[in-house]
Amino acid sequence: MFDFKTSLGQANFENPVFTASGCAGSGKELSQFFDLAELGAVVTKSIMLKPRSGRATPRMAETPSGMLNSIGLQGPGIDLFLEKDIPWLRDQGATIVVSIAGESVEDYAILARKLRAVSGISALEVNISCPNVENRGQVFACHPTTARAAIEAVRRNIGGELPIIAKLTPDVTSIVEIAEEVISAGADSLALINTVLGMVIDTNTMRPKLAGKTGGLSGPAIRPVAVRAIYQVHEAMPHVKILGMGGVASGRDAFELILAGASAVSVGTATFGNPTAVIKIKEELRAELISHGFDSLREAVGYAHRPEGNL
Amino acid sequence: MSGINREARQIFAEIVSNKKVGAYHHIVFSVGELANSAKPGNFVAISVGGQNSAMVLRRAFAIYRTFDRGASGGLLEIVVAPHGAGSIWLTNQLPGFKVDLVAPLGTAFGIPTEPVRALLVGGGYGSAPLFGLSEVLKSRGCRIDMVLGASTAMKIYAPLDGKRSVNSLTTVTEDGTTGITGKVTDVIPGIIETNQIDIIYSCGPMGMLEAINVIAQERGVVHQCAIEEAMACGIGVCMTCVLPIRGEDGVIRMLRSCIDGPVVDGGSVIWNSKRTIPEGTWGRN
């Protein structure tokens, strides 16, 4: 029988297809289209310490094979999230990965402390692609020192069990360097990649289309960037598990990220175009792996790295 | 009026007919039982461009009307203005082609329990959902006045059978090619006064809705409007289509126009806040 199971750090999952943070809310809206328990995991929207209005509109621009978004991490804050969303997700029988985001190293530490005793969470995704208010709004994940500081703060405060997945941006000179830094700071695994910073200018108004001016590019347009980042990091650190994401819209796409070195795959923008995309991709991926002769998902992880001459 | 529309389903729906009407296309889909659950004000989200399209997002359209046709299956109709790559693609599809469609989505127009005097105002193809609404209001014994406005005659959408359910219809065009020359807001105050309007229902461009809202507020008339904001998913997960709306608790929140709208109380919207988060909004940072 085909083995679809996977793991990230000490966290085990029944199958490798997850939602992507920020593309599934906290699951409620998608639950009317399919059973959340069918997913490898629900990765929640990145939650912050306090309620957050997010940015002004327009927040979205469609681009060729993708879209630009500038939401600004709108959300209810960790306390309301723990009170309402987590119990609801537990009731659905969902496997839960909580994504957190902070504006300071201290934010990450407090968020980790608030989450350490919460039951029913399989792993923590630490989104460090946020502006650091203590460092002129520079993004944590763009510098080895700030990336390390954020992950260390979570590691110190999360306690023993909960695996940490550090989510990195591809907008850096060397993603391998940042990856090595966060792993040595205590991250168990990596989420690759966050959106790619972009801009659209409206040629009628002749101004940036988004109120926030820049936005994160997602969708199939960035898939080759994701495949490259996953490939490079897996090559440098083959023992580190990777949650891959970036423009996955089919089982074939998910398979491509797995061949590059991902042990699991998140589906984001595809859900906006198709509410049942995650389920469709899961079934297609299973068929894809079987048709290529794999008996398990694990055998396919990083298969593109096999030496020349091997079949 | 808010919350997830529990009736929403994803189906493949065949195009039954696709006809050009003035500047627009009137497209009819075979949707089976889904037709029973749609209410005036709800919208539909349709995949465009075919399987390998570079357009990754659905397009949202207000539902013009639905028909429950028993054994032969229900119908769902929309009116499309072909102005972007996605809507142009859709207007080019022929009967027999199947599209991936999610509906009904969003909130519906609130229907009064007592017969009232209602004014329905539509801008351009924003008139489409108002005809289904007028049928419902008429069946409740309401008096219905309708004002339709557009830049030019070609852009007024007013089918003959749709007009049957209204007591009066006034058309207004900016270039004077049909009806009164001007804007809908030029005629609304007079109609409110003459016909003692209790409630205004509106659908159309945001600027028009805002101008109608000013008139409604000044005269103490209830105003329900169908708003629009750039939308990626239509089902409440992407958080792009938000608008600042004041809740019953007085707190302004950035609410999703796909879930908490498109139909909202005009008086609760913080209008003209484009490119800013209004002072006092929950979680403003």
TrEMBL record, chain A:
Keyword hit for Nucleotide-binding: no
GO BP field: 'de novo' pyrimidine nucleobase biosynthetic process; 'de novo' UMP biosynthetic process
Record key words, sorted: Cytoplasm, Flavoprotein, FMN, Oxidoreductase, Pyrimidine biosynthesis
Entry GO terms, CC: cytoplasm
CC cofactor: FMN
Compartments, record wording: Cytoplasm
Pathway recorded for this protein: Pyrimidine metabolism; UMP biosynthesis via de novo pathway
Main location: cytoplasm
GO terms of molecular function: dihydroorotate dehydrogenase activity
Keyword check for Oxidoreductase: yes
Domain Dihydroorotate dehydrogenase catalytic positions: 5-289
CDD domains in the record: DHOD_1B_like
HAMAP family: DHO_dh_type1
Family: Belongs to the dihydroorotate dehydrogenase family. Type 1 subfamily.
Protein name: Unannotated protein
Automatic annotation (TrEMBL), chain B:
Alphabetical list of Gene3D superfamilies matching this protein: Dihydroorotate dehydrogenase, electron transfer subunit, Nucleotide-binding domain of ferredoxin-NADP reductase (FNR) module, Translation factors
Domain Dihydroorotate dehydrogenase electron transfer subunit iron-sulphur cluster binding: 228-269
The keyword Transferase appears for this protein: no
InterPro entries xref list: Cyt_c3_hydrogenase_gsu, Dihydroorotate_DH_ele_sf, Dihydroorotate_DH_Fe-S-bd, FNR_nucleotide-bd, PyrK_electron_transfer, Riboflavin_synthase-like_b-brl
Cofactor: [2Fe-2S] cluster
Protein's recorded name: Unannotated protein
Keywords: 2Fe-2S, Electron transport, FAD, Flavoprotein, Iron, Iron-sulfur, Metal-binding, Transport
Family note: Belongs to the PyrK family.
Originating organism: freshwater metagenome
Any one GO biological process: pyrimidine nucleotide biosynthetic process
GO molecular function terms attached to this record: 2 iron, 2 sulfur cluster binding; flavin adenine dinucleotide binding; metal ion binding
Keyword Heme: no
